Amino acid sequence: MSALAPVIRIESVSKNFGSFEVLKNVSSTVHASEVIVLCGLSGSGKSTLIRTISALEPIREGKIIVDGVDVHARGTDANLLRRGIGFVFQSFNLFPHLSALDNVAIGLRRLMKLSKGEAHRRSHLLLERVGLSHRAAYMPADLSGGEQQRVAIARALSMQPKVMLFDEPTSALDPEMVGEVLKVIKDLSAEGMTMICVTHEMNFAREVADWIWLMEAGEIIEKARPAEFFENPQHASARRFVQSHLGRSEVSTLRESDANDHG
Ligand SMILES: Nc1ncnc2c1ncn2[C@@H]1O[C@H](COP(=O)(O)OP(=O)(O)OP(=O)(O)O)[C@@H](O)[C@H]1O
Ligand SMILES: [Mg+2]
């Protein structure tokens, strides 16, 4: 087995919402342990693309294979498939009446049919992994946005997914909480998780992405290594995108080094 086995294969995928073509003949591959940062202007089709990968949206044409499973084939069990794909949304979607621990444990109990003791044991380990052991008993309303999002990540990880998909995981957070969530995603990358992350955090993209895909009007118009993407983008739209996002990126660099300076 090559270290670069394809884990997600997107083959000539097209999709419409009515007469509007939201994905136009998109093809791309994600190999094992790669981190893809998917970016592009609002409405370019980023959410739709990652939603089709986890069968949250149907496609009109083409094929998507995740870990050997044809996602949209008749006969594919979408529920089973989604267990192998962790999906983290912009809004944290925790169950408000369950503690952080039980939010992580619920899938282990209901879907994997583990005993309460074993589900809680694993959930404690998952909370530890996202730096939240000390918040196990907290209710979502008593957690910060960054903590809630980390619980949501722990919950997604509980199903031992082969792939993690993130749709703007930090967009709903106050700026001071963005870093803690990105750090968890970065740690996952270091552990070899295969991921696609939709984000506008260009600093994160530069540091963590193996590849950056830029979408425009339903197509991936640029696929590049971060260095190429930022220093020498090929497409005129990519150049514009990079220019308009550099300002923000520099601001967050300052913030991070500030934080480091002051411990
Ligand atoms: N359920 C739907 N029905 C009709 N049109 C839709 C639907 N979902 C998305 N669209 C349209 O498809 C286009 C792509 O939407 P999508 O949410 O994938 O964009 P995006 O790149 O994720 O944008 P954003 O950065 O704002 O999240 C948009 O023009 C959107 O209005
Ligand atoms: Mg979106």
Strand count, sense and barrel status of the largest sheet are: 6 strands, mixed
Helix content: 40-55%
Query: Which second-level CATH architecture of the largest domain applies?
Result: 3-Layer(aba) Sandwich
Amount of beta strand: 15-25%
**CATH homologous superfamily descriptor of the largest domain:** P-loop containing nucleotide triphosphate hydrolases
The level 1 CATH classification of the largest domain is Alpha Beta
Distance between the termini: 43 Å
Ligand set: adenosine-5'-triphosphate, magnesium ion
Radius of gyration: 19 Å
How are the strands ordered across the major sheet?
Answer: 6-7-8-3-9-10
Structural class: alpha/beta
From N to C, what is the helix and strand string? EEEHEEHEHHHEHEHEEHH
- Helix tally equals 9
Number of domains: 2
Report the uncertain regions.
249-263
Pfam family, one: ABC_tran
Organism: Aureimonas fodinaquatilis
GO molecular function, one term: ABC-type amino acid transporter activity
Protein name: Amino acid ABC transporter ATP-binding protein
